[in-house]
Write a structure and sequence with these properties.
With 138 residues, the chain is of the alpha+beta class. The protein is 41% helix and 31% strand. It has three helices and seven strands. The chain has a seven-stranded antiparallel β-sheet, sandwiched between helices. The termini are far apart. It has one domain: Pnp Oxidase, Chain A (Roll).
């Protein structure tokens, strides 16, 4: 019985350490933005993400089409982004183009370095979706 308890404790500690490592790595880098999306009931949810710039626009990347923030963004593409202390209303447009996906991957790797290498090892890059951000007027 002691061995079972010890094994369960070790698995729990390892799982918590892994989750902590992922969280810690995702918070590394030169720039983290807050993206505010809206649920169907009108409540908002803030998510911290990496961002890159390309062709005079800002870009996000979703590693999974089932991520909560991505699902909310698809349902309601009018979002808010806090970048450099300033909140801006934006229109978010997922772009389903392999060339742009690869370009955004390359920009993320260039900007976030080893942190991106680690995070990228945990996802299927071909399933990632780049998200083009455009400021909304008013």
């Amino acid at each position: 019985m002691r061995r079972l308890i010890f094994a369960v404790a070790m698995v729990t500690v390892a799982a918590l350490a892994f989750v902590g490592l992922i969280y810690g790595v995702s918070e590394l880098g030169p720039e983290i933005v807050t993206v505010r999306t809206t649920n169907a009931d009108g409540t908002t949810v803030d998510t911290r993400l990496w961002i890159v710039d390309h062709q005079d626009a800002a870009w996000l990347r979703s590693g999974m089409k089932t991520s909560g923030w991505y699902v909310r963004l698809v349902a309601n593409p009018s979002i808010e982004v806090e970048r450099g202390g300033t909140w801006t209303r934006m229109h978010a447009q997922p772009i389903h183009d392999p060339d742009m996906r690869d370009r955004v991957h390359a920009l993320m790797a260039e900007k976030y370095g080893l942190a991106d290498t680690f995070i990228s090892a945990l996802r299927d890059g071909e399933q990632s979706v780049p998200i083009h951000l455009e400021p909304l007027n008013g």
